Amino acid sequence: MRWSSYFLHTVREIPADADAISHRLMLRAGMLEKVAAGIYTYLPLGLRVIKKVEAIVREEMNREGAIELLMPAVQPAELWEESGRWDRYGRELLRFKDRHDRDFCFGPTHEEVVTATVRGRVASYRQLPFNLYQIQTKFRDEIRPRFGLMRGREFIMKDAYSFDKDEAGLAIHYEKMIRAYGAIFRRCGLDFVIVESDVGAIGGASAHEFMVLAETGEDAVARCAACGYGANVEKATTGDLTAGEPEAPAALGRAATPGAKSVEAVAKVLNVAPPRIVKTLIFETEKEFVAALVRGDLDVNEVKLRNHLGAEHLRLASDAKVLEATGAPAGYSGPVGLAGVRIVNDRSVLRVVNAVVGANAHDEHFVNANAGRDWDDSEVADIARARTGDPCPRCGEPIEIARGIEVGNIFKLGTKYSSSMGCTFLDENGESRPVVMGCYGLGIGRTMAAVIEQHHDDDGILWPAALSPFEAHLIAMNSNDPTTREEADRVYEELRSKGIDVLYDDRDERAGVKFKDADLLGLPLRIQIGGRSLKEGKAEIAFRKLRTPEPLPKEQVVEAAAAAVREARREVPVSA
Amino acid sequence: MRWSSYFLHTVREIPADADAISHRLMLRAGMLEKVAAGIYTYLPLGLRVIKKVEAIVREEMNREGAIELLMPAVQPAELWEESGRWDRYGRELLRFKDRHDRDFCFGPTHEEVVTATVRGRVASYRQLPFNLYQIQTKFRDEIRPRFGLMRGREFIMKDAYSFDKDEAGLAIHYEKMIRAYGAIFRRCGLDFVIVESDVGAIGGASAHEFMVLAETGEDAVARCAACGYGANVEKATTGDLTAGEPEAPAALGRAATPGAKSVEAVAKVLNVAPPRIVKTLIFETEKEFVAALVRGDLDVNEVKLRNHLGAEHLRLASDAKVLEATGAPAGYSGPVGLAGVRIVNDRSVLRVVNAVVGANAHDEHFVNANAGRDWDDSEVADIARARTGDPCPRCGEPIEIARGIEVGNIFKLGTKYSSSMGCTFLDENGESRPVVMGCYGLGIGRTMAAVIEQHHDDDGILWPAALSPFEAHLIAMNSNDPTTREEADRVYEELRSKGIDVLYDDRDERAGVKFKDADLLGLPLRIQIGGRSLKEGKAEIAFRKLRTPEPLPKEQVVEAAAAAVREARREVPVSA
């Protein structure tokens, strides 16, 4: 492709709100254009990468026997009412009415549509199992779209849905998808971890996420270098925390803590370390008030708490509600004598002897409070947020918390959708049973963004060969010089005739501008024609990562480039 | 692909409202599933054909230098307000609000988005010309979706937009697209005609449609077999109609025509032939009443009339409005003495001597009325609907009206969008000028439907090789017979190893069912294993069009099939 007849414009000025490096580089390299908040046009150069990611995804999905179809973006409300999600799904579901005043939404996911398709076609266990996938445009009306393709509103996703007669079949599909995703992300050059995740709004029995570790990641991931344990922090458990020195329980007492509402303030006023304090947070669910207790140096993980409670909604109680529940202002809540409020103790609380807790009275705390003796400790759960250094729940070694970009997620849905939507089959004994489902998502644009997050330097992108929008970048250093242009034209045609997909910078620009743009675009292989080299009968080959051009007799440059391209094509890792 | 592990279910019962043969066959062959009115899932078999159409479209667009990008489905109202279409586009534009109460629509077309992208990136004539295209999902909220993919609401379209510095450049792009479309439709096996069309709501200077002639076509097309003239009936002109016998003008008179409101009734009451009557239809536009006059045997073409008037809206006046405009009930309107109403004479009217016209009085007509003498004939236009047998406007031979499916359309937009949206460039003299645009649409799903309309018989589809979802259909006539299964498995693996994309019917079904399904699916090449042939050491090759199986020694069947596939791959016509 000749740049002069291509639609490619690098950009110097980019909006200040482009806050992720991948977003900034995609805008600067002319790959992406913002149309509205979280809504983008993939410009030609960007679309080339998207298509390469899609091709890899298709290959690996097909290799694992998944079958491609294409479902619509616009979905009727009726299906979402059947699954119960029309009411439950929040404002991220973009809803609208058609001209006949019927309710529809722009699909953020396709469990309902695919389940409706399968129930109309599958009647017997003999028609199972299968795994259907699509690569399709979705919309989630994010309240705060950001990071470009990482959290857009309209986005391209590969979503797959497996259908089995039993859990054993689902387990096989689940393993196949773990294998496919691993192969896909490896081929894309991504360094990733697989972590356990919370099943969230989609529901189901178990779930994993594929996380690309990067500073701009929106998720926090707990991982253990020793044993390989990994989990989204929303879900991560830890081993038992170490207790303090053994100590005999002392008598409960009161202490004045004027104005001390936080753990830090109480620790200071009473001169105790935060692990000696038990923090009490008052939450509301749709049913009740809940006092969540954790050791003072820890935080409550609301996802774990909500899952423990089995609650639909959970939120921190407002100051007024805290007053209603405890009789005291927020900041002085505690479990001692607390009536009409469900008390949930984190495991850490049981290890604190002679604790400081709020006294449910203004400016007062209890000291030497002890679980069991002074408050009900019958309900114990793991509701604390994991921290770097906490013991791994599997091997006890310290875990580490890192930032991650979720590029894929897989869920064992079980019969959640098939039961509510009547997607059943007759088993070997002629009995009707709901189909056992799994679902498997993979963000195409987010994968592209994650690759840039992991592959860039100060000057631009460093594309892994498998995703590079072109295989080679040919630069005519001074297109106005007839000798240079003639030689570059010749090399261009020869590269093309060898089936190499090459971007030819034939623009009327200074060599410096062209080199800067080449660094920005980040194609791995570069061929430079012109300048002193050409006068000496030479052309240059360079690699984006090194950037030290290697001069070669100009007659040899095409073959050298072709050899490098062949090498790059071979280097693409395939599935294990 | 083994049918037993594929997601493919042929269907016996299809909804009564599936009214086009292509729609019925796609549903029966398990290619398509209705999700809501005009909204479909492309099932795996159907998606394979869609992908083949898309690949052909990409190849031919790229060959003509067009550059692919991908714009979003969801578009902000602001852009449509700039172009003026937010108000003008009717209820086919699906509008909605996001969670922040901002207006958006689901794009039915992308002139606004692409123009906004280009204006931000192009500043100089040196950056022109180029042609941007995408293959993308669109939505038009049709009031009555029908014929399956032919008039759906959500649909896949290839849309391209060219940008030039002048009309000469646009003309080159226009010719390139005519060539690309011709190549695409020929490769898809379509018999099509190119016709002039009305520019309609998109606007611009000139337009053509690619029409596939088929009885289910929603468009009427005028074409001349003698000279090749073709036009959508909305746009078609004709040569001069023959006049009646020469006759001297007689004195204007009145005639009682009790209850005679139609041409037929008047002709009967007064015993005159319809061509002696001048029909007067009262229309309303946003500005005025219009009396449209045509010879009694002709009809008014509202599109041509609206274009002649330059009106935004045009509709037949209601009975009450007719009374207001003419002073008489509908059915008795006429031009004589008609005040305050704009009179537009079709060319045919000037050839009627001593005409019968309405008298603007209940139950009365004038006789011996003559244009010019009895009413204002200063405004003459071609506003009559072309009919089979009318003279061709180019060569005078009789034209023919046929039904057509519009599979593609191309428009010279000129500066309609670039002017209103400020998409300008600096020309060679440093002067700012609006970019000259063209736009080029092609329905992917509609092309697939049109192919079926032209390629089917009573038993099913007859896929042209280029679009066939698989290259060969292998049938194990009785999968329960171990010898048959073993031999069929062997042939399947051998075909696959030769790179042939084969659908292997290994289902536990009777041979009769398999043959019927094979006819329905319509893959061009069939290999049949089993039965008496196999006992004789033979296998059968058959072609969907002939269906007479040819027995071969079973060792030869793979090579024979491979040869047929190679032949079919060669047969695919490429662009001229």
Outline:
The structure is a homodimer of 576-residue chains. Chain A is of the alpha+beta class and 576 residues long.
Descriptive account of the structure:
The structure is a homodimer of 576-residue chains. Chain A is of the alpha+beta class. Chain A folds into three domains: 47-237 and 401-452, BirA Bifunctional Protein, domain 2 (2-Layer Sandwich), CATH 3.30.930.10; 253-381, YbaK protein (Alpha-Beta Complex), CATH 3.90.960; 470-571, Rossmann fold, CATH 3.40.50.800. Chain A has 15 helices and 31 strands. In chain A, strands 3, 7, 8, 9, 10, 11, 12, 21 and 24 form a nine-stranded mixed beta sheet that branches. In chain A, strands 16-14-15-17-20 form a five-stranded mixed beta sheet. In chain A, β18 and β19 (364-369) form a beta hairpin. In chain A, α1 (21-28) packs across α11, α2 (44-63) runs antiparallel to α6 and α2 packs across α11. At the A-B interface, β1, β2, α2, β3 and β4 of A face β1, β2, α2, β3 and β4 of B.
Number of helices of chain A: 15
Write the CATH homologous superfamily of the largest domain in chain A: Bira Bifunctional Protein, Domain 2
> What share of residues are in beta strands of chain A?
25-35%
CATH topology heading of the largest domain in chain A:
BirA Bifunctional Protein, domain 2
How many domains make up the coordinates of chain A? 3
According to CATH, what is the class of the largest domain in chain A? Alpha Beta
Fraction of helical residues of chain A: 25-40%
Low-confidence parts of chain A:
none
Assign the CATH architecture of the largest domain in chain A: 2-Layer Sandwich
Q: Largest interface, counted with CB-CB under 8 A?
A: A-B, 54 and 54 residues
Mean pLDDT score of chain A, rounded?
A: 94
Rg of chain A, nearest Å: 29 Å
Shape of chain A: globular
Structural class label of chain A = alpha+beta
Separation of termini of chain A? 34 Å
Q: Main β-sheet of chain A: number of strands, strand sense, barrel status?
A: 9 strands, mixed
- Strand tally of chain A: 31
Oligomer: homodimer
